[in-house]
Every structure is written in structure tokens, then in C-alpha cells.
């Protein structure tokens, strides 16, 4: 589904990604962990076609990124730090707008269901500008999946969410997984990574220093791996 070979990204004479090799199978849910400045969000932005790699190869669903950006964009759902929502629009208006961009059929029906799924039916027609950070994040999640993407790219999606919203987000990710969606999630929340991800990669100084499967939702295992690679390794 996703294959990276010797991927590099340089900005302002600084090498942010240093020859990343990575292969992710269809349907995998992968957490990307690492300290600030490690290159995690940059990696996600390259996959989201928002920034161009300096060198290396990116293949997504058999398509080479440099030559097939438009086709690849249709496969992606992307949730960055910003919501990308129009704050004077309501949740319904936002989701219908983005759904129409992707040619979603019965878009209003789909939008209403998603607003209900993220627990905000009562605010269906209220302007997003009046929402709390957590409420905005819920609608942003719905925006990212309105077109049922094959690949979901999430950049610290749990930030600012209360426990109820975290549960909703995790249920959304798991339900997408059941449909075969491949998910990459940059996060600092080890607990969520352990609970919903099949696999963890740890990025440090622009390279992948560890790549392992998560079994039995073992938070301690994930934490110890991270501490060794990032804090304990010389």
C-alpha cells in the first residue's frame, strides 16, 4: 500500500528526513512516535502530497507520488494540526462542502450520519466558530473521512480531546480499519498508540530507529521501546 525508499527531505540546508525506508500493508494502523523535531509531521506531509521530497521514492497503492499526485490525493484523508474547516460554516455545511469536492453520493445524508457518529447532532447547524477545541476536532475527523479514504493520515489527532472524544476518535479509526483503511498516526500519546495501533515506528533525527508490532495493547512495551531508543540510547 505504502512504500518509501531512501526518502529524504531537506529544508533551509537542514536534512529533516535522512533516507527513510518504510513499507506499510493495506489495512495496517501504524503509530509514528518520536521527539519534537524528529521529522514525524514532515513524513506525513510528504505522504499527503503537501510537500515534495528532496530525493527517494514514494509509492502509494502502486502509484509513484511524483507522477500521480491527483490520483493519490483521492485516496487520502488528512487531519493536520489545523482543522481545515470553514469557521463560519456549520458542521453540516462543512461536511457537505468537502464531500462534494470528492464527489460523495448522498452527501448530506452521509454528513448528517458522521456528525451523529462524532456526537454533535445537537450542533448540526451551529457555526463552527462557536465550538470548543474538542468539538472542532471531532468535526475535523468527520471531514477527513467523509469520502471513506483508503489511507488516513492523522497528525496528533488526540490533542485537545476529552475522554469521550478520544473514545469516539478511536472508534472511528477502528471502524475504518474494519473497512480496510490504512492509517498512519503521528502521536505523543503512547496509550492511544498501544490501544488502537498494530504497529509502531519510532523516528529520531530523521531516520526510523525502531519498527515493531504491538501485541495485547501492551502500553509498557511501547513505552520501554521508546525510552530505550529516544532517551536511553547513546
TrEMBL record:
InterPro entries: AAA+_ATPase, ABC_transporter-like_ATP-bd, ABC_transporter_ATP-binding, P-loop_NTPase. SUPFAM superfamilies: P-loop containing nucleoside triphosphate hydrolases. One of its GO terms (molecular function) is ATP binding. Belongs to the ABC transporter superfamily. This is Sodium ABC transporter ATP-binding protein. Coiled coil: none annotated. Keywords: ATP-binding, Nucleotide-binding, Transport. Pfam families: ABC_tran (PF00005). It comes from Neobacillus cucumis. CDD domains: ABC_DR_subfamily_A (cd03230). Residues 2-230 form the ABC transporter domain.
